[in-house]
Automatic annotation (TrEMBL):
InterPro entries from the UniProt entry: RNA_pol_sigma-70-like, RNA_pol_sigma-70_dom, RNA_pol_sigma70_r2, RNA_pol_sigma70_r4_t2, RNA_pol_sigma_r2, RNA_pol_sigma_r3/r4-like, WH-like_DNA-bd_sf
Record domain RNA polymerase sigma-70 region: where: 21-87
Protein name: RNA polymerase sigma factor
Signal peptide: none
Molecular function per GO: DNA binding; sigma factor activity
Organism whose genome encodes this protein: Emergencia timonensis
Keyword Glycoprotein among record annotations: no
Pfam families recorded: Sigma70_r2, Sigma70_r4_2
GO biological process: DNA-templated transcription initiation
Domain RNA polymerase sigma factor 70 region 4 type: 120-170
SUPFAM superfamilies, A to Z: Sigma2 domain of RNA polymerase sigma factors (SSF88946), Sigma3 and sigma4 domains of RNA polymerase sigma factors (SSF88659)
Length: 180
């Protein structure tokens, strides 16, 4: 069943179909939230908040075959809110957490994978927010250029420009780290 049909039926009172819609997009939304926040616990909270907001505003949503970008826009806002709240609270020491994680896995390969993932995450965080968001939406959330334009609220040439500039900056950063 397509999103449009699900949404129509949900609005007509078949609220049990919300589960299908959530299940369809949960993994993509969680991945997006994780790459945007860089924190697994915060990503879970932001993903949950995304779907709570989706449910809350479902009756006001007007279907135009744009549900996926609409949902990612909600997720982006939830992540921005979550990051603001996190910055206002106590943050656990990341170095200590990484040490514990690396010690728990006594395999060099896993340690290397964690190091590479941390390096990529750090490189992504070094990009301006507008370029970072476009790269995350394109490569980690697999959205098309026109969908990214809808999520970010800018036109398609701007998305393409931000994507190109972000990839170039990311490549330079990763080259310095010896990963590219």
């Amino acid at each position: 069943m397509k999103d449009a049909e699900l949404i129509t039926r949900i609005k007509q009172g078949e609220r049990d179909l919300l589960g299908i819609l959530i299940e369809r997009y949960y993994d993509q939304i969680f991945k997006f939230c994780y790459y945007k926040t860089g924190d697994e616990a915060l990503a879970y909270d932001c993903a949950q908040d995304t779907f709570l907001r989706m449910i809350r505003y479902m009756d006001s949503y007007i279907e135009k075959d744009r549900f996926k970008p609409y949902l990612f826009q909600i997720a982006s806002n939830a992540c921005n809110d979550g990051l603001r709240k996190r910055d206002d609270c106590f943050i656990e020491d990341e170095a200590e957490a990484k040490e514990g994680l690396t010690a728990a896995f006594d395999k060099e390969d896993i340690g290397n994978q964690i190091a590479v993932a941390d390096t990529v995450r750090t490189a992504l965080n070094a990009l301006p927010q507008m370029q970072r968001d476009v790269i995350i939406l394109r490569f980690y959330s697999d959205l098309k250029i026109n969908e990214i334009a809808k999520v970010t609220g800018v036109n398609i040439p701007t998305v393409k420009s931000r994507l190109r500039q972000g990839k170039n900056k990311l490549k330079k950063i990763l080259e310095k780290e010896g990963l590219f």
